[in-house]
Amino acid sequence: MAYQDHIIEMGQLIKSKNGTWDGIDAEGVARMRLQNRFKTGLEIARYTADIMRKDMAAYDADPANYTQSLGCWHGFVAQQKMISVKKHFGSTKGRYIYLSGWMVAALRSDFGPLPDQSMHEKTSVPALIEEIYTFLKQADARELGMIFRDLDAARAAGDKPREEKLLDAIDNFQTHVVPIIADIDAGFGNAEATYLLAKKMIEAGACALQIENQVSDEKQCGHQDGKVTVPHDDFLAKVRACRYAFLELGVDNGIIVTRTDSLGAGLTKQIAVSHTPGDLGDQYNSFLDCEEISPADMKNGDVVLNRGGKLLRPKRLPSNLFQFRAGTGEDRCVLDSITSLQNGADLLWIETEKPHIEQIAGMMDRIREVVPSAKLAYNNSPSFNWTLNFRQQVYDAWQKAGKDVAAYERDKLMSVDYDATALAIEADERIRTFQADAAKRAGIFHHLITLPTYHTAALSTDNLAKEYFGSQGMLGYVLGVQRQEIRQGIACVRHQNMSGSDIGDDHKEYFAGEAALKAGGVHNTMNQFA
Fold first, then answer.
1. Which secondary-structure segment (H or E) carries 396?
2. What angle do CA 93, 96, 98 make, to 5 degrees?
3. What are the backbone dihedrals phi and psi of residue 22, each rounded to the nearest 5 degrees, phi first?
4. Per-residue confidence (pLDDT) for residue 226, from 0 to 100
5. Which residue ranges of the chain lie beneath pLDDT 50?
6. C or N terminus of the chain, fewer CB within 10 Å?
7. What is the model's pLDDT at position 252?
8. Which residues are catalytic?
């Protein structure tokens, strides 16, 4: 509803109360309504799901329309990210937020820092989603509040053109609320547990759930060893549980991102159920590392498969886990991905050990032979050494092309000594264009970095601590932080305004009129940053 329509509607409602509501200002109510556009998390989930669906269709039409996100571990971090996006690019289009289970475990668990093994409280995930959207809605309220104040000033000055421009800005205001792709890990239990947690996450506002095919109680970070996958039927039950949760809550456009860890997972906890040769369970079991035996070779407690009349004994480890044959990871990833898409998934996630476009594209080419519309969300992971990986890729490409690489030592290419070389410059250019190139060649619709704000918080804190506690003293803060905030127009330099002080002053004026005791008067030191 347009701003003026809100005012008219509220004015009529106030008038209908026969004078008892005359202390209520219709324009004040209109402003508060616009500053609180989304009343529930479900409204957010429906709104952002529509955004993602439109973006997916735009990508299908042209892979230049890929989308991006950065992982955020706190509502304030997400808020500042989206404020920055709007400031620098004028629009939030194509920019999302990623919620990483790794960062929830490491930073938001009541147990303290934990590894990425689903040991954190499952309720901390929907709590963080709700927190992020609380901060994003507050960013809306803050920015609109500043526009309302400018509107009042324009009216007081009799500046009609300025007033019309501001009214148009209000009616065409773009919210900071954007889609969140939220990590539900391996579902935190069985399919029912996955369904219950999915509901909480959707109710908090998540329009996209990312679920992986690892065993819940053996779940590992995608970039660590010891990963254990589950048979497809077990995983697909959890995918359906997520879809049921979306549909029950009326988020019919909800997005499910299915992640396969099979490339780096060499183990399974159980042998799949198979009823007929070539069924999904049989295909899963076909990757097991087995030895052919005769009945006389069977030992007490052996698990034996019958395949085509042959007895096969899967190799069982002391951990009671079964291992897959070496070199089957890519084939398993392809089967996992096709199966997921054929059973309700919307996007894929293939966890790789390095950022190599042709490796990703090789799997996606095979997947798209069966499902032409297949698309990836891809982890541009901080677990990759991007500098070393890409310098080695350039080294290998040069060597294959017969170019002289005698000046370089492949295993030492991370060295600062190479920073100004032609090889390093070409590698950096490949890193710069990686997302666009991979979107075009490898079917990557969404590029995300899982843990960037974990690393930036550590880096910026280290830099400040080094300067402030060293010889620079207070100048370390002023040079490295405050002066940069002022000159770069960082919103939180006026931290009272950022925390909602001006919004509170506006409300006080609505509630108490001229008697309001407001914080933003002439003696407020934040005026130094006006």
1. helix 386-400
2. 175
3. -65, -20
4. 67
5. 222
6. C
7. 98
8. 221
